[in-house]
From TrEMBL:
Coiled coil: none annotated. GO terms for molecular function: ATP binding; protein serine/threonine kinase activity. The keyword Nucleotide-binding applies. CDD domains: STKc_IRAK (cd14066). PANTHER family: OS01G0750732 PROTEIN, OS05G0423500 PROTEIN. Residues 369-386 have a biased composition (Polar residues). Residues 369-390 are annotated as: Disordered. This is Protein kinase domain-containing protein. Residues 30-312, 432-606 form the Protein kinase domain.
Amino acid sequence: MSDCDGSPSTSSSSSRRFSLADIQSATDNFSDELVIGQGGFGKVYKGSISDGESMTVAVKRLNPRSRQGAREFRTEIEMLSRFRYPYLVSLIGYCEEPDEMILVYEYMPRGNFADHLHRSGKNYSEPLPWLRRLRICIDAARGLDYLHTGTSIQPDRAIHRDVKSSNILLDHNWDAKISDFGLSKLGPEDQAYSHVSTEVKGTFGYLDPEYYLTRRLTRKSDVYAFGVVMLEALCGRSAVDFSGDEEQWGLAGWAQYCIGEGTVDEIIDPSVKEEIKKDCLMEFVQIAVECLRNIPRKRPTMAEIVVRLEFALALQEGKDSSKIAKPAKLDLALQEGEDSSDVVMPAKLTFTRNMKRFFLGTTLVNSDTKPTSKVQTNHSSISNSVMPDKDGAMSNNKDGVLAQELPSGGQTPTPSFKQFTFTELKSITENFSNEMKLSEGSHVGWIDEKTYNPLEFGVGMAVVVKKITPNEFQYPGLRQILDFLRECSHPNLVKLLGYCTESKYSEANNMFLVHEYMQKGSLDNHLFREGAEPLSWPIRLKIAIGAARGLAFLHTNTNTNTIQKQNMYSKFAAWDILLDKLSLFPNSIRRTSMQSFRTLECQSSM
Ligand SMILES: Nc1ncnc2c1ncn2[C@@H]1O[C@H](COP(=O)(O)OP(=O)(O)OP(=O)(O)O)[C@@H](O)[C@H]1O
């Protein structure tokens, strides 16, 4: 497991570097009147920066006496630059000068969840209704699920390590986001249940006892802490409270005792007690109890918690419980007596098949993404002169679609993707040979997993090089497409690795996308192909769950409007679901012949 406590670079492309003068001007020279919070790192100020127009921000200034500060400062920048998601607080920038370390975040006007639950702090006005508490828990669980699951472009996953109600911040609409990543740890993608031995860190009251005893940190430590947050939401008590009898000091222990004794009613926050529907309460308490299980393996995953909390919400909202399907256990393997953490969802959606649909016919949400009169609709009007040259630089032709939409200087708009040269693509696909052809416009090839450099047949990672015709990409333009694809980063979406726009070396102004190769082809092959080995029911269920997750992500998290979100696919079908080699066929041969690749891919949607 890699450790983010090293010294990651603070020069993040996605965060802005501020001067001390900028920050002083934003906070009225760190005026005490603008202090909105105080944590272990230092004071937090409300400020205002201008970036064309003025924006309210939260400014966290390291207290020079904080011993952990420098390390946490770098971890926070590293983490928040990698993981951007609606349920994680956004880092806007930072300031690093000889005696100053300052972080600048989006401002969350309703402060933290803890202050509302425990009725303290400036932001507290009146008790939060139960529905709001439930929705906040769901948002926070989504943020943690994303952190645990990783992104497909950024292969790292992470453990937050300091989940608590004061690290759940609330925006104007009461939407919740996870904050404070200073203690987080990065972990590799391929170890679902990885652990690392660390110096024990976190906050008392939320500390996973197993981690405390063994120093083995896993994602399930976050799950434990999240269970404590759920109990805080239910009981309106702090995780640690020394004001009562000794047995009540720690909320986790006390609440579990009461639940076990059947006296949970006595510890529910009186201000919400009458609001909570019985079946919702039962589901909620059951999830919390499972989060607090002694054996980390037996705790649910954050993904499962999200689904079950959504079910609890549906019950609370009065949906007829007989008509709501109780969520199937995501960890099917648990039903089969295996470790739920090792369950791999083998299904991923392909979403580049008909990209034009994602953009055409509707207006994009961002004002700067709206089609302009300069956008040409006749693809023959895109000439070589507006495409990047061999080094990716753009011409100055201001009338061209791409010239107008790519940043000046031809900087790669999506640094997470590799910009392949056409020569590299030729090398990867053995000169686009028939031997390497998967389907019309798609070739398979091999690259180095780390550098993405071409490798010889069968060595390294298999990828698909897919041709995109001008008809597909001319509207809304390359930059839009790449921005969109960068957003489409989810474990259940086929992972995009890079692209190539060297049109003058390719025929007909095509561009190319390079994405991971899903070795087992599309689902229809396995369901309908004559002679295909039947898929077992648990596998079908896993595939359905994986595909549903991919769709849910496309529907809720991409920067498109509602109509687009609901119409990502005109006809979603089995060939949009691709299967990889993981877990589906555990004994499959690692180096499969091209013939069998092609047999499986013959009806693939790529
Ligand atoms: N982006 C933000 N918008 C609004 N308020 C914020 C923001 N970030 C932090 N705060 C406020 O400042 C408080 C202190 O934040 P900080 O993350 O430094 O500490 P903490 O998590 O409460 O404690 P510790 O750092 O010791 O774990 C938060 O609880 C919150 O009330």
